Structures are given as C-alpha cells and as structure tokens.
# Entry
Amino acid sequence: MTGDKQPSVLVLAIGNPDRGDDGFGPAVAQRLRRRVHPTVRILERSGDALALIEDWDGIPSVVIDAMAPISEPGQVHRFDLTDSPLPIGFAPSSSHALGVAETVELARSLGRLPQCLLAYLVEGEQFETGVPLSPVIAAAVADVAERVLAELSTILETDGRAQHA
# Structure
C-alpha cells in the first residue's frame, strides 16, 4: 500500500473493463470516485488476486467483482466474509484463475483478514474480450454503488466510535 496515510476503508474493485461483464468492479469504482469520504481508498485490481491480502492488510474492506452466472445474470449478492467463507456455490464461480473465495480463505488461514470484509458479487452474462458490459450488468452498477456508499458510511461511523471509545 502506497501513500503517507493508511485509508480508513478500502474498496477493491476487481475486474478487467476490456472483458465484458468482468468490467463490473471497475465500473462501480468509477461511479464511486468523488463520492466517497476522503479517507476511503478505491483500488482497482485486474489480475493477481493474492495482492488483495496486502491491499486490505488491517483495513476494513469492500470487494466488488463479477462472477460466472449461477442463477440469473445481473443478480447481486452481498456477503460478510469477516467470519464466514463464501457459500460453496459461489466459490468456484470466479472469472479469475484464483478468485475472491480462494484468496479470502488463504488470508483467513494466515490470519490476514481485515476486521471487516464485505463482498458484492454480481452474476455476469458475458466475458468476451472487447465487448462492453451487458445491459443487465450495466444496470446493476448504480445500485451496487449506492449500496457500497451506505456500507462505507456505516463502517466509517463504527470505526469513528471505536476510535473515540
């Protein structure tokens, strides 16, 4: 993590905007920029999932990613991964070689999870190179951005109370 001061909360937007619905995370990140508290850092990752462990080291974090469809494209799932793994049906559904589920569980086994780790996963429809977000995924961007803003507000309020306790 670079910078002089560690952020209060980290938003990790995972995905590649040049691979269709895999660009969901970066699209949400773009929507969040300039709308988050100055102590919130937004970081986009398109490759190495293991880097997430270093990114979230000691920082409450929200992960945003697209996943292969398991029920309905555009369906948004929210998980609190702080104390529980992703449900088994979601674990193998990443479009990345090493996905969020594997990275979270590796961090858990190493004692490297942040004190708060939330995930917003959207079921994608298509992941071909060179195509834009599908309409159903593009429609979910604004909704997830608003939900993440509400989460960030709650995390910052909780963190502020903890620092003043």
The chain has four helices and five strands. The two ends are 27 Å apart (CA to CA).
